[in-house]
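Quick review question:
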C-alpha cells in the first residue's frame, strides 16, 4: 500500500492600496488670512499702548488738559488708531511685503532641510510656508502628511520581474505577481482559482498537480481511489511496476498467462482456446504447435551437450493444451508439480496424450482452428516424453524445456529418490542458466556453454539464436522477467531449492555439485 497527499494553499486577489494625489489640497491663501492676522496684532498692540498711557498719567496727580484728543473720552475707553495711521503705505503694498518676507523665510528654511522635506509648520509663524516657493496655490502640500509618503512602494512581479504598477496583483509565497504571471508550473496557464497546489516553490493547478503526483491505474486509466483511511491504495507488479486498482484482482480483468500483466482497457489481449489470455508482446514469439517447437527443443539438447551433459536417448517432446497437461499429471506417479498451474511435465509413465498438431489461426483476438492429435506414448526408458503448455513465448517455452530436460537427465543418469527441494532446485538452476545465456547472447556468435565453477549468475553465451538473427528489446525484457520469476519464487521447492542450488553451483561448480547430489542427495555446503 502507498500513500500520497497533496497540499493546497489559498490565494486571493487584491487591489494595490497606493496613495495617489492628482490635485493636492490647498490649505491657505497668500493675501487675506495673513493680513487679517497682522491687523489683529496691531489692534492688540494699540490696546496695550493705551493702557500704558493711562497708567502713566494717573500716577502724576490731577488730570490735565494736555492729553491727546483721541483719549479725551471716557477714562475706561481706549479707541485704537486705524492701522493705516501707523503706516502711510497702501494696504496692498503692506500685504505684498509681508508675503514676500514669508516666501524668503520659506526658501531659506527649505535649503537647510534634507531633500524631500519641503514643508514645515512653525508654531511661532503666522504664515504657512508653500512647498519649494511656488506661487501657484496647487503647489502647496497638505500639513497632515509629508510628500514622500505619497510615493508608491514599488512591487516587482515574481513572474515577469517587472513593476506591477497600479493594477491588480496577487501576493503569494512572499512575493507579488501580475494575475496573468502567476502560472501553473505544469501547463503554464494562469492560476485563477482560489485554491492551488504547491510543490516547493512551484505552484500548480490542483488538477495538474493531481495528474503529476496522483497515481493512475494502468488498467482503467482512472485515478486510483483512496481507501477508508483516506490513503491511496494500489497494487503494483514487482517486476513490471504496473500499478492498478485493487478491484481489478477480482473483477475478471484478463491477465497474461506468460508475463502476468493485466489487460489494459485500451488494449485487447488474445484469448487461447483453453481460456488463457496472452498479451501482444508475448504473442509475438509464441510457439503454438509441436512442429514449430522442435528447433528450440533440439537447440536446448545441444546446450546440454555443450555442458557435457548429453542426453543419449531420443525423448519425444509435445506441445499440449492445459486440459491434456492436467490429465497427464493425474496419471503420473512420480514428480513434484508446481501449483496452481503446471506448464511442463517430464513424463515417465505410458499414456495417451493429445498434442497440438497444427497451430491455430488468429481471428478477432482469438486463436481458433487448432488441430490436435492423440498420441500413445510407450516407455522405452526412464523418460517417456516431455510435455509443454502451448502458446507461450519462445524464451518461456525454452526455460520450461531446459527445466524438464534436467529432470530427464537426472532420471537417465540414475539419480533416485531426491527430495523436491534438491531435484526442483537444480532443474531451476539449469533453466536460469539457459535463460541468461539467451538474454546475454551475441546473435552473431555461437559460443559453447562453460562448465567451469561459475553458477547460474555467470554463464556463457547461447548456442542458439532465433531465426530473425537476434532478439528484440521486448524479448530480452521478457527473458529478464522469467529470470526474476525463478529467482524470487516463494515456494519452498522451486524458490528455496533454486537459491540453495545456485549458491552451491556458484561455489563448487555444476559438475561437483551434481556429484555431491548423486552421493548424498543434498547440496554441498
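Suggested answer, residue by residue:
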Amino acid at each position: 500500500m502507498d500513500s500520497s497527499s497533496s497540499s493546497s494553499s489559498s490565494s486571493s486577489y487584491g487591489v494595490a492600496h497606493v496613495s495617489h494625489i492628482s490635485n493636492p489640497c490647498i490649505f491657505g491663501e497668500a493675501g487675506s488670512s495673513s493680513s487679517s492676522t497682522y491687523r489683529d496684532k496691531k489692534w492688540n498692540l494699540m490696546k496695550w499702548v493705551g493702557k500704558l498711557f493711562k497708567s502713566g498719567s494717573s500716577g502724576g496727580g490731577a488730570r490735565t488738559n494736555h492729553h491727546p484728543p483721541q483719549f479725551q473720552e471716557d477714562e475706561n475707553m481706549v479707541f485704537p488708531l486705524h492701522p493705516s495711521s501707523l503706516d502711510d503705505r497702501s494696504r496692498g503694498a503692506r500685504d505684498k511685503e509681508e508675503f514676500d518676507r514669508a516666501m524668503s523665510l520659506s526658501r531659506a528654511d527649505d535649503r537647510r532641510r534634507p531633500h524631500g522635506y519641503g514643508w514645515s509648520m512653525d508654531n511661532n509663524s503666522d504664515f504657512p510656508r508653500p512647498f519649494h516657493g511656488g506661487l501657484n496655490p496647487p503647489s502647496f502640500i497638505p500639513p497632515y502628511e509629508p510628500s514622500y509618503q505619497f510615493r508608491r512602494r514599488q512591487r516587482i512581479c515574481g513572474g515577469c520581474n517587472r513593476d506591477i504598477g497600479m493594477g491588480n496583483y496577487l501576493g503569494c509565497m512572499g512575493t507579488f505577481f501580475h494575475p496573468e504571471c502567476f502560472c501553473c508550473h505544469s501547463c503554464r496557464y494562469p492560476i485563477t482559482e482560489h485554491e492551488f497546489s504547491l510543490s516547493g516553490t512551484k505552484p500548480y493547478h490542483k488538477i495538474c498537480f493531481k495528474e503529476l503526483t496522483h497515481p493512475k491505474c494502468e488498467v482503467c486509466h482512472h485515478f486510483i481511489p483512496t481507501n477508508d483511511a483516506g490513503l491511496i491504495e494500489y497494487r503494483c507488479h514487482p517486476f513490471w511496476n504496473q500499478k492498478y486498482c485493487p478491484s481489478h484482482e477480482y473483477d475478471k480483468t484478463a491477465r497474461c498467462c506468460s508475463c502476468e500483466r493485466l489487460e489494459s482497457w485500451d488494449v485487447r489481449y488474445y484469448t487461447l482456446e483453453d481460456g488463457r489470455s496472452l498479451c501482444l508482446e508475448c504473442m509475438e514469439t509464441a510457439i503454438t504447435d509441436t512442429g514449430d517447437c522442435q528447433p528450440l527443443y533440439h537447440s536446448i539438447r545441444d546446450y546440454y551437450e555443450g555442458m557435457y551433459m548429453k542426453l543419449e536417448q531420443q525423448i519425444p517432446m509435445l506441445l499440449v493444451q492445459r486440459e491434456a497437461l492436467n490429465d497427464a499429471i493425474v496419471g503420473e506417479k512420480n514428480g513434484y508439480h508446481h501449483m496452481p498451474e503446471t506448464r511442463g511435465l517430464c513424463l515417465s509413465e505410458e499414456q495417451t496424450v493429445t498434442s497440438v498438431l497444427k497451430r491455430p489461426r488468429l481471428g478477432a483476438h482469438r486463436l481458433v482452428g487448432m488441430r490436435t492429435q492423440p498420441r500413445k506414448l510407450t516407455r522405452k526408458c526412464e523418460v517417456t516424453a516431455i510435455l509443454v503448455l502451448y502458446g507461450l513465448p519462445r524464451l518461456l517455452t525454452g526455460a520450461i524445456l531446459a527445466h524438464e530436460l534436467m529432470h530427464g537427465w537426472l532420471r537417465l543418469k540414475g539419480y533416485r529418490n531426491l527430495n523436491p527441494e534438491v531435484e526442483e532446485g537444480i532443474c531451476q538452476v539449469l533453466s536460469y542458466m539457459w535463460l541468461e545465456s539467451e538474454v546475454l547472447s551475441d546473435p552473431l556468435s555461437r559460443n559453447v556453454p562453460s562448465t567451469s565453477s561459475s553458477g547460474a549468475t555467470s554463464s556463457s553465451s547461447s548456442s542458439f539464436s532465433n531465426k530473425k538473427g537476434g532478439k528484440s528489446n521486448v524479448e530480452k525484457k521478457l527473458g529478464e522477467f522469467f529470470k526474476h520469476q525463478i529467482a524470487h519464487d516463494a515456494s519452498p521447492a522451486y524458490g528455496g531449492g533454486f537459491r540453495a542450488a545456485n549458491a552451491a553451483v556458484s561455489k563448487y561448480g555444476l559438475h561437483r555439485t551434481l556429484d555431491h547430489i548423486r552421493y548424498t542427495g543434498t547440496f554441498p555446503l
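Why it works: The mean pLDDT is 74. Residues 320 and 433 are 25 Å apart (CA to CA).
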